[in-house]
Structures are given as structure tokens and as C-alpha cells.
Specification:
Layout: E1 5-11, E2 17-23, H1 26-29, E3 34-36, E4 61-73, E5 83-91, H2 102-117, E6 120-133, H3 146-151, H4 153-165, E7 170-175, E8 181-186, E9 189-190, H5 191-211, E10 214-217, E11 231-239, E12 242-243, H6 256-267, H7 269-276, H8 282-285, E13 295-300, E14 305-309, E15 326-331, H9 337-353, H10 379-387, H11 390-394, H12 398-415, H13 420-430
Parallel strand pairs: 1-5, 13-14
Antiparallel strand pairs: 1-2, 3-4, 4-5, 6-8, 6-9, 6-10, 6-11, 7-8, 11-12, 11-15, 14-15
Helix pairs in contact: 2-9, 4-5, 6-9, 7-10
The structure holds glutamic acid (GLU) and magnesium ion.
Length: 431
């Protein structure tokens, strides 16, 4: 009855986690993984396989679990067993990498940044999400309020314990600005581990919420005029264990290499946001004055910037070099974290290769700053920018990219007659 069981999973192009169960530890030790279907990569947020896809009914893959990318989910009932969860690579049946695997895409990005520049990336994902009670009633409480915090005390204690027990290094759990909105942050980790944790963390949050008769959603917006749920990605650059992001005398305190890396992201931002915020409602969130990302720029401690240079806290120590980081603010949970981070790393690689620089690090409100490039105002505009950016397209396996684009078309098709309110409700129900 209590036989240990493992769930072997991938994260797809809409950020959903799917996979198969198998007996533990057999399925891990065999190294052969479990079967998987190529067309599963083409499933939209709402569960239908995008009709335009390269796979059809053909082919087979293996989900080969990574013993390092794991977490234990507590039992869901008193005499049940816990579930061991593993993230996997999607591999061909001979074990070779499958070119369209999103986790392999991130591996490749990490590898070329290391190979060409000897740079490693440390990353921390911040996640915002909304909670409601299973009966539909609101959590209540003030923005950032202690009452909001206490209203979900049992949930948050259990959540933080699960994150802790799995070695995820939770740093903060906080009531956010929106009604029923909360945020959880993890400490920085090497890029691949951070992206894996981002994927697993969402499942842990949803799973924990369910066990406390709550419903968690990471949808970017619950209503067009409500507060957005962002995914912010904090990045610092390292070489051989030493931080290389900070330079005291330079604009924004960005080292020459960090500036080039940021410039690569800015240069391709209008295409990149299609990959990091790919839903039909993502661009309702990415508007000015929402503290999401209101303009394509690098700015000091500014929550409207696409890239925000984070503060240097010197209360206890004057060595700011290790904690110094910048934050990409235009991602949301409808994107796959492996794709988000892989894309940002490729963009940084491009900035370094082309020795790009930033015209101006902004340190005022964006309205007062000159030459801030506007964000695309819709996913359609971002997808058009992606279509005309040959550099960004070259980072992807063509089938992977085509599948990504087909999914967007299929979601557009599915939602096109809905109002913005209805669209938000649809996404809230599946994220
Ligand atoms: N909720 C904002 C967003 O949509 C972020 C607010 C914050 O800076 O924490 O990204
Ligand atoms: Mg926040």
C-alpha cells in the first residue's frame, strides 16, 4: 500500500508540469526513464494539442529523471506515502538529447556562456501568486498586512517546511500588495538548479494550498485592473567562484561584462518578452505604472524597469560584490523557467560577444528619463518582434520554436472571442 512511488516530469512550453509515475527506486536506478510522446510539447495552456505541430501521432521519447532535480511531496492522506518528484530531460529512445527539450535548451545556454566567457550565472526566481479559499471566499487582509499573513499561517508554515526539507533555501514569504496575493523567494543558486526549483516550487505551492483547502494561482493577472503576479529573475555573474557583476566606479556599478550582458537583453528585449511572458493576458500586466516592466531599460532600484539594478545593502557588511545582482522583471508563470533563463543567458552571451554597452543607466522615474524604449503592447507585437529577430531565433531548435509559436496561435484562437475579464478567468483556472 505504501510502496514508494516516483513522478517523473517535464515542464512544457506553457509552463505546465506533466509526466508519469513509476515505482521508486526502480525507475530512477534503471536510467531508462519512462515513455513520453513528442506531441505533448504542443499542448496549450488549456489542454489541447495545437493542431499545427511537427509531431502528429508519431514518435517516442523517454523522460529520463535527473536525480539532482527532485523534491519530496508530503502524503495527501493520513495513511498515504509521500511522492518523490523528479524533473527529467526529454531524450530520444537511444538516450541522445532530444533537440526540442526545453531543459536541454537551458543546458546549452549555460554551456556556451561557460565555454566562451568562463562565466557562470547565479539566479533567484521570485514568485507572486494569489490565494483564495476553496469555497471561493477571499483570504482578506491589508496589502502587506500582518493580518493577511496570519490568515494563511498554517499554509505558509507547511509550505516553508516543505521547501526547507527539500533544500530549496526559502528566504522570504510575504503578503503582497494585491488582495490575497503572496510572494515566496528562494536564495540564489546556480542557473540550472534555480530554474528547476522555480518549476517545482509552483507545484509545491499549489499542492500545499490544496491540502489546506486553499486554491493558489500564478496567473499573471486575475482581472485586467487587478495587481499582477510577476516572476522576477535575479541574476549575478561569476567566474571561478568569484562575483564579477559589480564595479564600484562604473555606471550603475555594473562591471564591463555585466553591462554587456544587460545590453544583450535590452537589444533583443522586444523579441525576448514573447518567450518570457507568452500568454494572451501577459501584456495587460506589462504596462507602465504596474511595477512590472514599463519600459525597456536598465535602471537603479526602479520597479518599472525591465532590468532593475537591485540595492546594495550595507547594514552589516560593506562587501556588496557577492549579493549584487540585477533583476529581469518581465517574466510570468505562463512561461517555462528553463526557456526564460536559457533565453536570458543566450541574450547575455550575445551582448558579451558583440561587446554591447548601455547608453544610459537610469536613476530617475522612467517618465523623466529620455530614450526609454517602449515594451511591446501586446503578445502579437512581441511575436512579430520575435519573428523578425534572426539572432533570437537562432538560439532555438527550429521545431521547438515553431511549436512554441503554434501554441500561441492555438491559445489566441481559443480565446479570441472572450473579453479581457474572461481571458483572465480562463488563465486563473489553469495556473
Ligand atoms: N506585482 C508586480 C509585478 O507584476 C511586482 C511588484 C513587486 O515589485 O514586487 O511584477
Ligand atoms: Mg513582489
Amino acid at each position: 500500500m505504501n510502496q514508494p512511488w516516483a513522478f517523473i516530469a517535464t515542464c512544457d512550453l506553457v509552463g505546465h508540469v506533466r509526466g508519469r509515475g513509476g515505482p521508486f527506486p526502480k525507475v530512477i536506478e534503471s536510467g531508462e526513464g519512462v515513455g513520453w510522446v513528442p506531441a505533448d510539447l504542443a499542448i496549450s495552456a488549456f489542454g489541447a494539442i495545437a493542431p499545427e505541430n511537427a509531431f502528429g501521432a508519431l514518435g517516442d521519447l523517454r523522460l529520463v529523471p535527473d536525480a539532482q532535480a527532485t523534491a519530496i511531496f508530503p502524503a495527501t492522506h493520513p495513511d498515504g506515502a509521500s511522492t518523490r518528484f523528479y524533473l527529467a530531460h526529454q531524450r530520444n529512445i537511444d538516450g541522445s538529447p532530444w533537440a526540442s527539450c526545453p531543459r536541454t535548451f537551458l543546458d546549452n545556454a549555460i554551456e556556451i556562456l561557460d565555454r566562451d566567457f568562463d562565466i557562470q550565472v547565479m539566479v533567484s526566481f521570485e514568485h507572486e501568486f494569489a490565494l483564495s479559499r476553496a469555497d471561493g471566499s477571499a483570504i482578506g487582509g491589508l496589502p502587506f498586512g500582518f493580518d493577511a499573513y496570519r490568515n494563511v499561517d498554517q499554509f505558509s508554515q507547511d509550505l516553508l517546511a516543505t521547501l526547507n526539507d527539500n533544500g530549496f533555501d526559502p528566504e522570504t514569504f510575504l503578503p503582497e500588495y494585491g488582495s490575497g496575493q503572496f510572494e515566496v523567494t528562494l536564495g540564489p543558486a546556480p542557473a540550472k538548479i534555480a530554474a528547476d526549483r522555480a518549476i517545482i516550487l509552483r507545484e509545491i505551492v499549489r499542492d500545499t494550498a490544496k491540502r489546506f483547502d486553499l486554491v493558489a494561482t500564478f496567473a499573471p493577472l486575475l482581472g485586467p485592473n487587478l495587481v499582477g503576479n510577476g516572476v522576477h529573475v535575479h541574476i549575478s555573474l561569476w567566474r571561478n567562484g568569484s562575483p564579477i557583476t559589480y564595479a564600484q566606479s562604473r555606471p550603475g556599478n555594473l562591471s564591463v561584462e555585466a553591462e554587456a550582458a544587460c545590453a544583450g537583453i535590452l537589444e533583443h528585449a522586444r523579441a525576448i518578452v514573447a518567450l518570457t511572458a507568452p500568454s494572451q493576458i501577459s501584456f495587460l500586466r506589462l504596462q507602465p505604472h504596474r511595477w512590472s516592466a514599463g519600459g525597456i531599460c536598465v535602471a537603479k532600484q526602479n520597479r518599472e524597469a525591465l532590468l532593475r539594478i537591485c540595492p546594495q545593502v550595507t547594514i552589516k557588511s560593506s562587501d556588496v560584490t557577492k549579493a549584487f545582482n540585477f533583476e529581469y522583471r518581465a517574466a510570468d508563470a505562463t512561461a517555462n523557467p528553463w526557456i526564460v533563463l536559457g533565453t536570458l543567458i543566450y541574450a547575455m552571451h550575445e551582448g558579451l560577444s558583440s561587446k554591447l554597452s548601455i547608453p544610459h543607466v537610469i536613476d530617475e522615474e522612467l517618465e523623466q528619463a529620455a530614450n526609454v524604449v517602449a515594451m511591446p503592447s501586446s503578445l502579437e507585437e512581441a511575436l512579430a518582434a520575435l519573428d523578425s529577430d534572426e539572432t533570437v531565433k537562432s538560439w532555438f531548435d527550429p521545431v521547438l520554436l515553431q511549436t512554441f509559436i503554434s501554441i500561441r496561435a492555438s491559445e489566441e484562437q481559443e480565446l479570441h472571442s472572450l473579453t479581457p475579464e474572461e481571458r483572465c478567468a480562463r488563465y486563473a483556472s489553469v495556473y
